[in-house]
């Protein structure tokens, strides 16, 4: 039972005490990267603004903005405990998709984890 009087963000892993194993941390990371901003009723600010950049012109500038959004989101939601060891974005012009490979480490991981994402551009 959490007995704090301060308002705790749903993803404040260091404050909740509930997310203690690597599977739960990876699940939270997946939620951060895939849930559309504003879709959670009790936390409209949850998630990243990646959708915003998918409606821009498909180019390296939008790819960099998406990368910055993901990096800042990971730092924000994991309070600096999750480290990004590698971040690579490839623009697939054949289907206008940003293909992203991230390698992250966290104190609960035995070894760094590879995350593969793809976001289709609408711009």
Which keywords apply here?
Nuclear Transport Factor 2, Chain: A; 3 strands; 123 residues; globular
CATH fold-level assignment: Nuclear Transport Factor 2, Chain: A
CATH class: Alpha Beta
Instruction: Kindly report how far apart the N and C termini lie.
Output: 46 Å
Percent helix, as a range, is: 25-40%
Shape: globular
Fold and architecture overview:
There is one protein chain. The protein is α+β, with helices and mostly antiparallel strands and 123 residues long. The protein has one domain: Nuclear Transport Factor 2, Chain: A. It is 33% helix and 22% strand. It is built from 4 helices and 3 strands, in the order ααααβββ. It has a 3-stranded antiparallel beta sheet, covered by helices on one side. A hairpin with a 7-residue loop joins β2 and β3. The N terminus is likely disordered.
List the helices and strands and how they pair.
Blueprint: H1 13-16, H2 22-34, H3 50-54, H4 60-77, E1 83-92, E2 97-105, E3 113-120
Antiparallel strand pairs: 1-2, 2-3
Quick structural gist:
The chain is of the alpha+beta class and 123 residues long. The chain has helices at 13-16, 22-34, 50-54, 60-77, and strands at residues 83-92, 97-105, 113-120.
């Amino acid at each position: 039972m959490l007995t704090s009087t301060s308002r705790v963000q749903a993803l404040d892993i260091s404050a909740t005490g509930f997310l203690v194993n690597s599977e739960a941390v990876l699940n939270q990371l997946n939620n951060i990267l895939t849930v559309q901003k504003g879709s959670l009723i009790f936390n409209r600010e949850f998630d990243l603004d990646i959708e915003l950049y998918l409606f821009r012109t498909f180019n390296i500038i939008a790819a960099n903005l998406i990368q910055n959004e993901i990096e800042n989101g990971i730092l924000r939601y994991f309070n600096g405990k999750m480290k990004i060891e590698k971040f690579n974005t490839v623009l697939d012009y054949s289907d206008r998709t940003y293909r992203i490979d991230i390698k992250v480490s966290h104190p609960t991981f035995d070894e760094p984890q590879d995350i593969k994402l793809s976001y289709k551009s609408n711009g």
